[in-house]
Amino acid sequence: MIKFTVKVFKRVTSLLEGMAVTIKYFFSGPVTMQYPDKKWTLPERARGVVTLIIDKETGKHRCIACLACVRTCPNFSLAVEVKTDENKKRYPGKFTLELGKCMFCGLCVDSCPTKALMMNNEYELAVYTRKELTRSLLP
Amino acid sequence: MKYEIEKDIMTDNYYLNMGPQHPSTHGVLRLVLRLDGETVLDAVPDLGYLHRGMEKIAESRTYSQFLPFVDRIDYIAALLNEHGYCLAVEKLLGVTVPARAEYIRVIVAELNRIASHIVWYGPFAMDLGAITPFLYAFREREMILDMLESVSGQRLTFAYMRIGGVRQDLPEGFIEKARAFCKYLKPKIDEYETLLTENAIFLKRTKGVGILSGEAAINYGCTGPVLRGSGVKYDIRKNSPYSVYPELEFDIPTGTVGDTWDRYKVRLEEMRQSARIIEQALEKLPSGPIMAEVPKIIKPAPGEAYGRAESSRGEIGFFVVSDGTQYPVRLKIRTGSFSNLSALRDLVKGLKIADVVAVLGSIDIVLGEVDR
Amino acid sequence: MTLLFELIKQLIIAAVLLGFIAVNAMFLIWLERRLCARFQVRIGPNRVGFQGCLQPIADMIKLLQKENIVPKDSDQLIHLLAPIVVFTAAFMAYLSLPFGPKLIALDMDMGILYIFAVTTLSVIGILMAGWGSNNKYSLLGGMRSVAQIISYEIPLVLSIFGVIMLSNTLRLPGIVESQKGFFGWYIFQQPLAFVIYIIAATAELNRAPFDIPEAESELTAGYHTEYSGMRFGIFFLAEFTSMFMVSALAVCLFLGGWQGFGILPAPLWFIGKCYAVIFLLIWFRWTFPRLRVDQLMAFGWKILTPLAFLNILVTGLLISVK
């Protein structure tokens, strides 16, 4: 009989304890963020869209069109058209990224021998047409 | 001739399609239920709605190219998958990973395990009708994801581990943050328990529901919390140790009966143990390189290797066969969810519809892992 | 002439009540969403209007614009009528709710009995919705709902017997008037009855932890799975209408009705108390898991009903001793 009473008491208090937890948070205020109004600062390493690093002063990039990134991309989302100038130096004539195929793994950035690529902090990537998903990385 | 009663009204069994569009089949699982009123006579899982042909994709990718795909097998515990895959390829190559890299791997993997169990806890509570615990749990998960993002650069599909090490060293301030988080998490887990564990309604819904005996669990090939909930003390981290787990102290929580409640309790306890592992690993973190000497183009010698890790849903194993080229000839993925799900049919026979949801939730499947 | 006058009067009363219900239900929808958000450490709707208070109106406009999808092979007439039946049942109960002294549409001698008789009718609407939708989830939800409401009706009615025995009347204003002063409230004389009433009322409302007829994780949406547009909206409206009704009844029976202690007018006291009870219901909903259908039945018949009988017995004994 005592056991039974204790059991019933425990069952009832278990429910009340749960209610105590929820009411505690009721008064503690929200933890969510109003997204489009406020935006969070991404960490330095955040992997957004692949871009060519452009030197601000000279406006040049370091790409030598070696195709390492193209070969390493698991989803074949990068395309480079190789051109050679008068000194037989290779340079990219076209450098496109298919955002729809990209899975933001960062393997291309790792593979680049001249560290010409980086991933920026862009994350709002929704677009209206399929065409806009193809981006040219060259300035 | 037992009884022959003429009935004016016929009663009949009927079929109910639960899924693939259903709020609590955790993705695109389709369960064909044969019902007698509310009682389940049979439940046949129908798989394949999320099949992406991972194993075939692997055959046309190099070893390091396949790594981002591994994240997408079990997208909730991506780092644990990566760990298993890296172990397999490293075994094939015969590479030893530097100690610091292994410690970092363990830290991030255990963080990911906590996050993964949180993703189980919230929806499981939701399946049982309690919606609020879900949001409390996701509040903590957000912190883990923030930390993992600061390490790897992504929040879900990390692609952080590399064959032979990890991509980058831990960022500045991470160790303090992780320590503070472990301290913060423990009272929160107690709070989760207050909300459900001893709750009278929750006990009614889970105690004695969907009992899976230890023997049956082994026969079905169940691993992970489902097996341990049935009272079998089996954890790959202990039973066939890999990485630096032998140097760390932790317990393997087990259940006694093998019902839904036991599986629930095992997972909650595992979150505590993971926090314990992280604290120790942070303490012991050695300095040194984070990458082993691995050639840029990986061409393992012909042969085969099986690497496995304890994922949050059971054993995740990669069987890799190499013929000496830079592409694997065959890559077989063994996942915990798939084997665990096969036990469902026996578990739910004779239960009510509401129990199907509870049992399925307690098995904790990720469809990406079931279908691959 | 008098007949016409009477008719116009009736129509005005109906319109006022309907207006009150609509505004109140919309406010309740907003309140529930905001409160639930607070329980879940979220913010909740805060875009439309001040603190999102116009959100229900925006939702209503959206629902009105939506196509009414009627499933193939469904029982058209029944499918169409079901939401109206459910709403009417909830609406009719307002007829004898005393919002204040003399502020009652129809002061019946058996007001309380009338309310219970009318609200139970909503079962028919729910069963119609379940059957008429030609959907197994809906049917299961309808069946569950009928079983649940019928079995919880018994402890619900039994729980108020104690109050009726104490107050000696079935007239709701009479019951309210018999509770004099703060300690005269029947909640202090009938605490067990109040607990039983609240539990049974939660079950009557199909709210968590007894929301098995529309358990979204099992039956997607239960009996209103196949409803869309404004017909779904009417189900929603009915739900909040009866939610207010049930708490209003709790206030009348146990919490002293419109009687207050300050300068505030009586109807405000009444509505304020109702919202306090509603807050309790919301608090329940966002804390507890859901019971299973057989456990729900067992709880109703094996625990609540005997307890309610016990309450009647003890009350009767105490009255006769006095």
Helix content of chain A: 25-40%
Q: How large is the share of residues in beta strands of chain A?
A: 15-25%
What is the ordering of alpha helices and beta strands of chain A?
Answer: HEHEEHEE
Total tally of structural domains of chain A = 2
* Oligomeric state of the chains present here: heterotrimer
Q: How would a textbook summarize the main sheet of chain A?
A: 3 strands, antiparallel
Give the name of the CATH architecture of the largest domain in chain A.
2-Layer Sandwich
- Main sheet specs of chain B: 3 strands, antiparallel
Q: CATH superfamily assignment of chain B? A: Cytochrome-c3 Hydrogenase, chain B
Strand content of chain B: 5-15%
Description:
Chain A is built from 3 helices and 5 strands; from the N terminus they run H-E-H-E-E-H-E-E. Chain A has 139 residues and is α+β, with helices and mostly antiparallel strands. Chain A is elongated, with a radius of gyration of 27 Å. Chain B is α+β, with helices and mostly antiparallel strands and 372 residues long. Chain B has helices at 54-59, 67-71, 78-93, 99-127, 132-152, 174-195, 200-206, 214-220, 225-229, 236-239, 260-284, 336-342, 344-348, 353-363, 367-371; strands spanning 14-18, 30-36, 39-46, 161-162, 165-166, 303-311, 314-322, 328-334. In chain B, helix 4 (99-127) runs antiparallel to helix 11 (260-284) and helix 4 packs antiparallel against helix 14 (353-363). Chain B has a single domain (14-371), classed as Cytochrome-c3 Hydrogenase, chain B (Orthogonal Bundle), CATH 1.10.645.10. The longest helix of chain B has 29 residues, at 99-127. Chain C is mainly alpha-helical. Chain C has helices at 2-39, 55-65, 76-92, 111-119, 122-132, 136-167, 172-177, 186-189, 191-204, 216-219, 229-254, 266-285, 293-321. The mean pLDDT of chain C is 83. Chain C folds into 2 domains: 1-65; 74-321, no CATH class. Classes of the chains: A alpha+beta (139), B alpha+beta (372), C mainly alpha (322). At the A-B interface, helix 1 of A face helix 2, helix 5, helix 6 and helix 7 of B.
Topology:
The complex is a heterotrimer of chains A (139), B (372) and C (322).
Chain A: H1 2-28, E1 50-52, H2 68-72, E2 78-84, E3 90-98, H3 107-111, E4 117-119, E5 134-136
Antiparallel strand pairs in A: 1-4, 2-3, 3-5
Chain B: E1 14-18, E2 30-36, E3 39-46, H1 54-59, H2 67-71, H3 78-93, H4 99-127, H5 132-152, E4 161-162, E5 165-166, H6 174-195, H7 200-206, H8 214-220, H9 225-229, H10 236-239, H11 260-284, E6 303-311, E7 314-322, E8 328-334, H12 336-342, H13 344-348, H14 353-363, H15 367-371
Antiparallel strand pairs in B: 1-2, 2-3, 4-5, 6-7, 7-8
Helix pairs in contact in B: 3-4, 4-5, 4-11, 4-14, 5-6, 6-11, 11-14
Chain C: H1 2-39, H2 55-65, H3 76-92, H4 111-119, H5 122-132, H6 136-167, H7 172-177, H8 186-189, H9 191-204, H10 216-219, H11 229-254, H12 266-285, H13 293-321
Helix pairs in contact in C: 1-11, 2-11, 3-5, 3-11, 5-6, 6-9, 6-13, 9-11, 9-13, 11-12
